[in-house]
Amino acid sequence: MNKKTLAAGAIALAVTFATSACSDSGGDEATTATATSAPTSAEANSARFDQDDVMFSRMMIPHHAQAIEMSDMLLAKDGIPEPVRALAEQIKAEQQPEIEQFEAWLEEWGMPMHGGNAPGMNGHMSGMPSVSGMPGMDDMPHMDGMMSEQDMQALSDAQGVDAARLYLEQMIVHHEGAIEMAQDEIEDGQYPETVELARTIADTQQKEIDTMRQLLTTL
């Protein structure tokens, strides 16, 4: 074998190694780029919500739960005018699924049902028989429209048309508080589905306020 043949063989071998090295390097770079540019689903989800979404969800759970409790109180009484009874049933039917949705979002986000300022709110509240006087309730910020223990006792004691009138008066205040919180979420929230539910709550409850004010004129 002459020197030219050896040289040609060496050159061919060198080209093969170089090509292989470039191919491996390119693959590594592509793999690295893919890993870097593709965030995990958890990271992507985390980037979509903010503290306003979390706080709104946490506050609306007990707020809705109290509205359901008030409605249950009214529905257990005799002598309630049918339009008021129908409204109470409607409020229950709307707000229970919303509680479950808020709970689902908090679980999806990996957030507890309560913040550090509400030690007593330590679980799913949709099945709670009463939210009045719960430990930690007074520490929840901006809990607009919530009835006090005295308010709830007054509703419990009232009967007939007096109970219907008191329920409407209290629920108007309760709804106004929910609308205020919903408007804050619409302005400051980030999670699209939560902001959309806030819009629904604001619209629905304003219509119910108008209905309740009209019903009051008939009692």
Strand content: under 5%
Percent helix = over 70%
How many DSSP helices?
Answer: 7
- Count of DSSP strands: 0
Radius of gyration: 30 Å
Largest sheet: none
Oligomer: single chain
Low-confidence stretches: 2-23, 25-39, 117-142
- Terminal CA distance reads 116 Å
Shape: elongated
Tell me about this structure.
With 219 residues, the protein is mainly α. The chain is built from seven helices and no strands. The longest helix has 35 residues, at 3-37. The chain is elongated, with a radius of gyration of 30 Å. The N and C termini lie far apart (116 Å).
SSE order and pairing:
Blueprint: H1 3-37, H2 41-46, H3 51-75, H4 82-109, H5 149-157, H6 160-188, H7 192-216
Helix pairs in contact: 3-4, 3-6, 4-7, 5-6, 6-7
Which tags fit this structure?
219 residues, mainly alpha, elongated
Please sum up the structure shown.
This protein has 219 residues and is an all-alpha fold. It contains 7 helices and no strands.
